[in-house]
Amino acid sequence: MRTSLLGKRDQEKFEIAENEIALLVQQQISGTVNLYYYDEAGFTLTPKIPYAWQKKNENILLPSARSKSFNVLGLLQHNGNFESMVVDGTVNSEVIISYFDQFAQSITQKTWIVLDNAPTHKAKIFQERIAYWKSKNLNLYFLPAYSPELNLIEILWRFIKYQWLPFSAYLNIKNLENALLDILANIGRKYQITFV
Predict the structure, then answer these.
(1) What is the pLDDT of residues 110-139, one digit of tens each?
(2) Closest CA to 144 of 114, 113, 117
(3) How many CB atoms are closer than 10 A to CB 148?
(4) pTM over 0.85
């Protein structure tokens, strides 16, 4: 069972966005644009392991502790290309702007980024930067509310949190940092997702 906000979604806007993103995917396949999916995710010592095998009459106990958070900003493509930046601290609009500014310097053709409507993405300072990015061939596609299924990077975060991070990552903050950095560095090689 999972909680769902599906009932709050505007289905018509969702379907329009789904079709528009499908067109961007086709343009990427034809080589006329690059398409990325962007999001942020936080990682702490609170385990995100949904299930495990255990011996009968025994319990697996995972330590759970308040800890600092490793916040990851990421850009993912259908082919598994992944770029990220780990932030030791709060992610605010200024941090994301800096990340997008750096990314805009590296692109060589028209590029689209699909992202949600988080408050940091709707802040005035962020919105004022959109025209600059567009002048650098970096365009933003904002998803309608309650449409995380349209942002493929959500699947990546789920794999990291629920499948790829080992039990040992939750024993202490250094283990978490090492395991997370290993996963981020090896997405597309050791850690793969295939989008059909």
Answers:
(1) 999 999 999 999 999 999 999 999 999 999
(2) 117
(3) 16
(4) yes
